[in-house]
Design a protein that fits this description.
This protein has about 475 residues and is mainly alpha-helical. The chain has helices at about 5-20, 20-40, 45-80, 80-115, 120-150, 175-220, 230-265, 270-275, 310-315, 325-335, 345-375, 385-390, 395-410, 430-460; strands at about 155-160, 165, 285-290, 300-305, 415, 420. About 70% of the residues lie in helices and about 5% in strands. α2 (about 20-40) packs across α6 (about 175-220).
C-alpha cells in the first residue's frame, strides 16, 4: 500500500472509532438532562437515581471520547500537512472555535455537574447538565461546519500570491446548505444513538426483573422467602423516555436525510450517483433495493430489485427528476479539472447507503413496537421486545458508521471538493513505513481503550438502581 492508502486507512480507522463515542455523548447528555429535569420538577427518587446512573455512563463515554478525539488533531500535522498548509486558513477557524468555546464549555460544566451535587443549588446544578448538553451539540456544530466546507467550499477567496484559499466570510460556513442539513442530521443521529443505548440498558434490567418475578413466584409456590429485588420501576421510566425520543428522532432523521440527499445531488452529483451505482444518466430513476455487480469494474449490475421513481424523488424531490450518471459526471469533471478518474469506490457508496437506510427502518419498527407496548402497558412484560431491544444496541453505531462512509468516501478523490485532491494533501516528509508504524501504535492504543471502555461501561450498565441509604441522601444540603 502507498503512503496515501495508509494515511487514508489510518484516518478512517481513528475517525470511525472516535465517532462511536461522539453521538453517545450528544444524545446521552440531552437524555440525562431530561431525566434530571423530571426529578427537579416532580421530585421522584427514581428520576434522581436514573440521572446518576446514566450520567455516570456519560462521564465514562466522554473520558474515552476525548482521548480518541485528540488523535484527530495530531493527524492533520502528521499525515496531512499538505492539506493543513493549503486550507488551514479556512479549516482552522471552526476547529479553533470548537476547542476554545464548545469543548471548554462542555468540560467546565461537566466538572461542575460531577462535583456540584451537594454544593450547588438544585436549579443551578440542573443548569450545568443542560450546559454540558449544549456544549456537546455546539462542538458538533463547529466540526460539521468544517466538514461541510470540505463537501461544498463557501466563504473563501483564493489568495493570488499563494494560490491558497482564505476565509473572507465566516458566517458563510454556518449558512452553507450542506452544513444546515448535515448538522441537523448528525444531531438527530445522536439522539437516536443515545435513545437506543438507554433503551437497550433499560430493557436488559427489565428482562432481568421478569426473571426475578418468576423466581419469586416459584419461591411463593414452594413456600421459600423472596431473595430477589428488582429495579424495574426506575427502568420503566427510562425505557419510556428513550422510546418517546427515539421514534420522532428517527422520523425527522429520515426526512432531513432525504433533503440532505437533494442538497448533495446539487453540489456533489458524483456522490449520489455512486450511492445508487447509477452509471448512466436517467430520467425518471428507480431506486435499487438490491443488486449484484455495478461496481467500479462492472457497469452492468444484475439481479436488481427496483422501486420506480424513488431515486428521482430522493435525489431531486420530483417524481420524474433527472439524476446524472457516473460516466457523465466524470466527463464533466475531466473537462473542468483535467484528466483523471473522479469516481469514488462505488461498492462502498452503494452498500453504505443501504446499510444506513435499512437499519434505520428496522430501528423505527422496533421503536413503534415499543410505543405500542407502552400504550398497552405491556412493555415491561414483553420478553420478545426486551430481548430485541437489548440485541439492537449495535444498530445505531452501524448506522452512524455507514453514514460517515457514505459522506466521506463519496467525496473522493477530493479532500476538498473541487479545490484539492486527496493525494495532494498528504505529508511529503512522512514515509510509508512511519505511517504503517503509527497505524500499529494507534491500533494497540485503541484496542486497550476498547477493553477499558467496554469493561467500565458494561460493569456500570449492569448495576441496579435500587434505592439505598446512600442513594436516598443525594443532596441534603441542596438549597431549593
Amino acid at each position: 500500500m502507498s503512503q496515501l492508502d495508509l494515511a487514508r486507512l489510518q484516518f478512517a480507522m481513528t475517525s470511525i472509532y472516535h465517532f462511536l463515542f461522539v453521538p453517545v455523548t450528544i444524545g446521552l447528555s440531552l437524555l440525562t438532562a431530561l431525566l434530571q429535569t423530571a426529578w427537579y420538577r416532580g421530585g421522584r427518587a427514581e428520576y434522581l437515581r436514573l440521572t446518576r446512573f446514566f450520567g455516570t455512563l456519560l462521564v465514562i463515554n466522554i473520558a474515552v471520547g476525548v482521548v480518541t478525539g485528540l488523535v484527530q488533531e495530531f493527524q492533520f500535522g502528521m499525515d496531512w500537512s499538505g492539506y493543513a498548509r493549503t486550507v488551514g486558513d479556512v479549516f482552522g477557524a471552526p476547529l479553533a472555535m470548537e476547542g476554545l468555546a464548545a469543548f471548554f464549555l462542555e468540560s467546565t460544566f461537566l466538572g461542575l455537574w460531577i462535583f456540584g451535587w451537594d454544593k450547588l443549588s438544585k436549579r443551578v446544578h440542573l443548569a450545568t447538565i443542560w450546559a454540558v448538553a449544549a456544549g456537546s451539540a455546539l462542538s458538533a456544530l463547529f466540526i460539521m461546519a468544517a466538514n461541510s466546507w470540505m463537501q461544498h467550499p463557501v466563504g473563501y477567496a483564493i489568495d493570488p500570491s499563494t494560490g491558497r484559499p482564505q476565509l473572507n466570510d465566516v458566517w458563510a460556513l454556518f449558512i452553507n446548505p450542506v452544513f444546515l442539513r448535515g448538522y441537523l442530521h448528525v444531531v438527530l443521529a445522536a439522539l437516536i444513538t443515545g435513545s437506543m443505548v438507554m433503551l437497550a440498558i433499560s430493557a436488559w434490567h427489565l428482562r432481568n426483573d421478569l426473571r426475578d418475578d418468576r423466581a419469586d413466584a416459584d419461591a411463593d409456590a414452594e413456600g421459600d422467602p423472596h431473595t430477589t429485588k428488582g429495579s424495574g420501576s426506575a427502568f420503566r421510566l427510562s425505557a419510556r423516555l428513550s422510546l418517546l425520543v427515539l421514534v420522532p428522532a428517527l422520523l425527522f432523521a429520515m426526512l432531513v436525510g432525504s433533503e440532505l440527499g437533494v442538497t448533495e445531488g446539487k453540489y456533489q452529483p458524483m456522490k449520489i450517483a455512486a450511492a445508487e451505482a447509477q452509471w448512466e444518466t436517467c430520467q425518471p430513476c428507480s431506486f435499487s433495493l438490491f443488486q449484484i455487480g455495478g461496481g467500479n469494474n462492472d457497469q452492468t449490475p444484475t439481479q436488481i430489485l427496483e422501486i420506480p421513481h424513488l431515486l428521482s424523488l430522493l435525489a431531486t424531490n420530483h417524481w420524474n427528476g433527472k439524476v446524472l450518471g457516473l460516466n457523465e459526471v466524470n466527463s464533466q469533471y475531466q473537462q473542468q479539472y483535467g484528466p483523471g478518474d473522479y469516481v469514488p469506490n462505488v461498492f462502498i457508496q452503494y452498500w453504505a447507503m443501504r446499510v444506513m437506510a435499512y437499519l434505520a427502518v428496522l430501528a423505527l419498527l422496533l421503536g413503534l413496537w415499543g410505543l405500542w407496548l407502552l400504550r398497552r402497558k405491556r412493555l415491561a412484560h414483553s420478553r420478545w421486545f426486551l430481548n430485541a431491544a437489548v440485541w439492537a444496541v449495535p444498530m445505531p453505531f452501524l448506522i452512524n458508521t455507514a453514514g460517515w462512509l457514505l459522506t466521506e468516501n463519496g467525496r473522493q478523490p477530493w479532500i476538498v471538493q473541487g479545490l484539492q485532491l486527496t493525494k495532494d494533501g498528504v505529508s511529503s516528509s512522512v514515509s510509508t513505513t512511519e505511517v504503517a508504524i503509527s497505524i500499529v501504535a494507534f491500533f494497540l492504543l485503541y484496542a486497550a481503550l476498547t477493553v477499558v471502555a467496554a469493561v467500565l461501561m458494561t460493569r456500570h450498565a449492569r448495576k441496579s438502581t435500587d434505592p439505598t441509604e446512600q442513594d436516598d441522601q443525594p443532596a441534603p444540603e441542596l438549597t431549593y
